[in-house]
Specification:
Helix content: 40-55%
Structural class: mainly alpha
Radius of gyration: 18 Å
Order of helices and strands: HHHEEEHHH
Low-confidence stretches: none
Number of strands: 3
Largest sheet: 3 strands, antiparallel
Shape: globular
Strand content: 5-15%
Distance between the termini: 40 Å
């Protein structure tokens, strides 16, 4: 038995300052427009999918073709990549399907990932962060972090 389990939980302190590292509607539209013209299509599409789904970075960057049902238009994320360890399904809008279909045209058939990197790997962190820095500059939002894209979807 865990010896700490007898201790009572204390209430968490409320956050004194609200988080501001998410995009408003106008900024989200500007972000999608900017990313639609970014030269690194794979990184830009991954960032756009983060914005459109609210998924976590790892859930998207490690997304595999076997996890996407193009007919039923749903992404099925396995429990091992989900923070809560519960499998999750994301319904695909037209915009999401468009991104997935564009990625299919860029596909190396030996690599199972939608957002492909070198060899058989998913997209590298460097490429994603480089495109994200360009987005930060475009929006003049250097306070924004990649996880803020998730908060943008939720808010």
């Amino acid at each position: 038995k865990n010896p700490v389990s007898v201790l009572k939980r204390t209430k968490q302190r409320p956050r004194l300052t609200p988080r501001t590292d998410c995009l408003d509607t106008k900024e989200m539209k500007a972000a999608v427009a900017f990313l639609s013209n970014h030269q690194n299509r794979t990184a830009a599409n991954a960032l756009t999918l983060l914005l459109l789904t609210g998924a976590r970075k790892r859930e998207i960057t490690e997304l595999k073709y076997l996890e996407v049902n193009f007919i039923k238009r749903v992404i099925s994320l396995p429990a091992d990549r989900i923070k809560t360890k519960q499998p999750r399904q994301i319904p695909c809008t037209e915009a999401i399907m468009s991104i997935l279909q564009e990625q299919a045209t860029l596909r190396n058939p030996l690599n199972p990932h939608i957002f492909q990197g070198n060899g058989l790997n998913p997209i590298g962190r460097h490429h994603l962060e480089q495109a994200f820095r360009a987005l930060q500059t475009e929006l003049s939002r250097h306070d924004l972090i990649i996880h803020g894209l998730r908060r943008s979807y939720i808010s």
